């Protein structure tokens, strides 16, 4: 039978609808993140995607559903990058979405089986572990970093923040996916419903127990931190003058530290002693050091650096941190010889920034030690953990999201400091040029009001300091290692089961009639 040109078979149409459904289902979890911040939705947001993948007729179809869902998720969580990357964001989403293809096969293998309670319990452990491995791989800085980790959607939920102090954001991602998996099994397989309800109860009780009994950090004094947010000002000299005026207005408020946002100074202070002198004069008038961020070509080494520089009454103190993890395409173009064309279709970096080599813990005049981070470095759990292990009492992230001012990006970025505070038991300051600026206490709870993207202002926060070591700082990424171990055991068990399965015997020869010809099957 010939199919008319331009017409599609029912099977082709079904495949297209299924593909569209996979993309849409993968995009749903983005609603749990800021700005919508429907944090509760995260615990069921994966259910449509999981049900779809579970129903795949083959492993190949499950991999395709996983890939398309991953594309939808990456596009939804990073849609605000469209003005900068243009069509290249679709290419990136397509490449990163491939990470979910093996996860789709894993979902079908564990959720698509018969109604066995042991198999269902295995799925509750293995499916979240597979998801966490995807998050781990895409958290590599070269692939864009750990933006949009599912556990990060719980940044304002106190019990989840307590879980982060034990196992980092990774542990909360495991919990969220485990709950989604148990809900899917409750819906799809009635014979295991009682077991899955029990799993949900155990998850709730465990979270409550951690919330009540995980160690609290002891409060140890306070520090008054001022955040200066000049607002959207394109001209660097005008922006510097506005920051200067806002800082001068803080006189008499007895601040201990003033923080300016990322790229608040556009020229190297060693090459512009006049700018250094103006900042030093502000420091002298306020009686507090000022942490600025210099985005400029350095005079003592080649290349452009983004650097946190501490300035006191006598000028730069010599304490400087050069940003180590750069934003792909925003601050450098990976494999520029191959991908340099991205600069012609979006706002990719025309010249690569240079990387710093080591984290730095700075000491203020009152002996308080601060650990600076720049821009999306606040998304990396390991960076803040290493700073606290190095003695940091206060985490400071200097940022600027002016390119994405009217999108979800400022709120998403501001929420990350809450995670880092909860994980490390140290307060965190998120200071931006254009908003949203925010401050969080040692438990990840918000201190004071956010400075919105519409504000050109400064604000002073009384920030409590804390001592003690959280389990996450002490033990590190044990949740990740546990997930890897669970996957390894599952793969080993599946491999052993495949080896024990008897090989199919040779097909029986066809029966023959008395005349020696093969018998025909009855009709």
Can you describe what's shown?
A hairpin with a 5-residue loop joins strand 9 and strand 10. Strands 5-4-3-2-1-11 form a six-stranded mixed beta sheet. A five-stranded mixed beta sheet has the order 6-7-8-9-10, covered by helices on one side. By secondary structure, it is an alpha/beta fold. It is globular and about 95 Å long. The model has no long low-confidence stretch (mean pLDDT 89).
Question: Oligomeric status of the shown chains?
Answer: single chain
Spatial arrangement of strands, main beta sheet? 5-4-3-2-1-11
Distance between the termini: 25 Å
Number of strands: 11
What is the H/E order? HHHHHHHHHEHEHEEEHHEEHEHEEEHH
Overall geometry comes to: globular
Largest sheet: 6 strands, mixed
- CA radius of gyration is 27 Å
- Uncertain regions spanning at least 5 consecutive residues: none
Strand content: 5-15%
Share of helix, binned: 40-55%
- The number of helical runs is 17
Secondary-structure-derived class: alpha/beta
The whole-number mean of residue pLDDT values reads 89
